[in-house]
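Below is one such protein, fold included:
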Amino acid sequence: MRGRRPRRGPRERAGNAPHSGGRPQRTDLRLNAQGRHPEAEALAREALAAHRELDRFTVVLRLGLARSLNGQSRHEEALAEAERTDELHRGLPEEQRGPETGAIQLATATALLGLDRSTEARTHAETAHAACRAAFGPAHHRTSEARELLDRMQGA
């Protein structure tokens, strides 16, 4: 049928389908950014069920899941997912760890803040901010996100 795209599998929909520029799509990231957290959660869970390898892609999927759970105020689940993700991330070879710099700490900080564990949350947010600033610079979206979380803690 003309004009229809072929149906993509869960790995492609969740973040590994090529698009213009050769960079992977991050459908789950976009859904979370749009506040469509239940959809992002479903997509991440579907992709995790289909992708059984313990690799960097699993880390990316689990981070998306933790973000979606935080976005739904399901902070206990988000914290557990962030902790599992951190354990997996630490087991990856050093050369595969860079792109997620600060992201796990940021997800952890968000979950802890939602659980009213502000002292722990601040420690993780400060770690995330420092790591992101060093790795990506002050203008990077993750550095800004960590700064915004710290500012929100300051105002609370």
Helices lie at 10-16, 27-33, 37-50, 56-71, 75-90, 103-114, 118-136, 141-155. The longest helix spans residues 118-136.
